[in-house]
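Hi, here's the filled form for the chain we discussed.

Project: internal
Contact: R.S.
Residues: 406
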Amino acid sequence: MYDVFKIRSDFPILSREVNGKPLVYLDNGASAQKPQVVIDAISRAYGQEYANVHRGLHTLSTIATENYEAVRGKVARFLGGVPEEEIIFTTGATEGFNLIAYGWAMQNLTAGDEIVLSVMEHHANIVPWHFLRERMGVKLVWVEPEVDGSFDPARVAEVLTDRTKLVTLTHMSNVLGTVVDIAAVADILRPRSIPLAVDGSQAAVHTPVDLTVLGADFYCITGHKLYGPSASGAVWIKAERMAQMRPFMGGGDMIRTVTRDDITYNDPPHKFEAGTPGIVQTIGLGAALDYMTAAGIENIAAHEADLRDYAQDRFRSLNWLHLQGTAAGKGAIFSFTMDGGAHPHDISTIVDQKGVAVRAGHHCCQPLMQHMGVNATCRASFGMYNTRDEVDTLIDALETCHRLLG
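And the returned structure, exactly as it came back:
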């Protein structure tokens, strides 16, 4: 049985007050809080077991290397049991997409080739492709969501041409909560042998992900949203795509030999991991994945689905509040604006006085904001430790805000 109050007791920050009120943390879409086991793992790694990894033969280096490399298997199992050697450690999805862009796309695309992406994408899955547009002359082709924020895979099929060389999509929108049917998109692309890259930053936190059946070629996750440390993450790359890549960062660990005239590369995945890595951050990510696995990702998903449904019912009672994205089966992520011209920044500031943390702005999704006809929204995003009572506190805070600003 999923005990949310036991879960909450594992997160020390949730016992604090903000502005004299109990903290209601609803900014999980930006970054999640950390359970004590993650904090302890980080403290132990620095305080008792720290050394550089790989090649060191002394005891501390051996311990650090074993703990660090063990996380590769944890990530592989968390994503459905893919091979460990297909997991590359990164600082998060941003580095993951840059690795795909520089390591794979620059080697396999030429001027005039097309990359298809949705207007729901986070800037992490937009800006690297603009780099290629500027520097190589590739073309970006955009697919829009439906009016309710849902995403029809058939719209991808409509824009494919002989020059389409990559489709890259979010698995769950960080603004709308929309869940994209990645398997359906993969079915469309497979007969054309078009690779599919996926931003799993939100989806992997809220729903089980099995890459052995999803049909993608690349899949990025971000540790700080997975209740782990910032500057941690990973990208899964199918072996056949990895074989088509070359490193885009050079340095220690990603080579076997270096001479004055030549170098030879290490085997994947280390071939794509240059320099001293985020050792402790990665160990912390492993602890976070252990924690989520123990709680049960299916249990987390069911708990958040209940919060989503309850929050939707409460939001409907506010006829002066406008939700952006109402697709069926969405994640527990709610972006909204308010009648009367209240700016999202003002809304966020006022509800913060009630102890409620929400995010305001464009959420690194400016093309989506332009598509929706707004400059910014407020966003309340729920996690494994949030409760129905916290939904009620948010609604009360918004009603106060409406009285002041509406």
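Let me know if anything looks off before we file it.
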